[in-house]
Structure formats: structure tokens, C-alpha cells
């Protein structure tokens, strides 16, 4: 069974983070950087700064939801010191 991943991107344009899920975070990063994602199109380019492997789509969705919550943003701050964490673009 193929894994799912929660990933965090950092915009090099505004420094804000975007959290999402994918089976292939590297490929998904390319899609974000080519403007294929409406919510991030105007914040390009991005770099991939964090991935977390999950055993199921449900677990990945639950983790994504958590990282987009207040407690999850605090956890990301501790994992990714110096990153700008806010609500813009899905975070």
C-alpha cells in the first residue's frame, strides 16, 4: 500500500506556509510552482520544508486538519523554528 504524506510548503514570495496532503509531495510541489493550484498560484515560488508520512488517507487528512488548527500551527512553529506561520493560503 502506498503512503500518504502531509507536506508544508514555504512561499519564497511572502514567507507564509501552506499545508497539504499528497502521495507524492515532490510532484505536488512542482504543481504548486507551475501555478496549477488556485489557492497558491499568486504566492509562487515555493520550497518544500516538511513532510510527514501517514499510513492512510484518513490519517493524512486528520494531520492536515490538525496542522491548520491553532494547536497544529503551534506544533509546526516548534518543528520549524523561524518560519512564518499564519492562516493565509490554507494555514
TrEMBL record:
Domain of life: Bacteria
Pfam name, any one: GIY-YIG
Annotated CDD domains: GIY-YIG_SLX1_like
Molecular function terms from GO: endonuclease activity
InterPro entries recorded: GIY-YIG_endonuc, GIY-YIG_endonuc_sf, UPF0213_domain
SMART domains with a match to the protein in the record: GIYc
Keywords, alphabetical: Endonuclease, Hydrolase, Nuclease
Domain GIY-YIG residues, every copy: 2-79
PROSITE patterns according to UniProt: GIY_YIG
Record family assignment: Belongs to the UPF0213 family.
Protein name in the entry: Endonuclease
Amino acid at each position: 500500500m502506498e503512503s500518504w504524506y502531509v507536506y508544508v510548503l514555504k512561499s519564497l514570495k511572502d514567507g507564509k506556509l501552506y499545508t497539504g496532503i499528497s502521495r507524492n509531495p515532490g510532484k505536488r510541489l512542482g504543481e504548486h510552482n507551475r501555478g496549477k493550484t488556485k489557492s497558491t498560484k499568486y504566492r509562487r515560488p515555493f520550497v518544500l520544508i516538511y513532510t510527514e508520512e501517514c499510513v492512510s488517507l484518513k490519517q493524512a487528512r486528520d494531520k492536515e486538519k490538525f496542522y491548520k488548527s491553532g494547536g497544529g500551527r503551534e506544533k509546526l512553529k516548534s518543528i520549524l523554528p523561524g518560519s512564518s506561520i499564519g492562516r493565509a493560503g490554507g494555514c
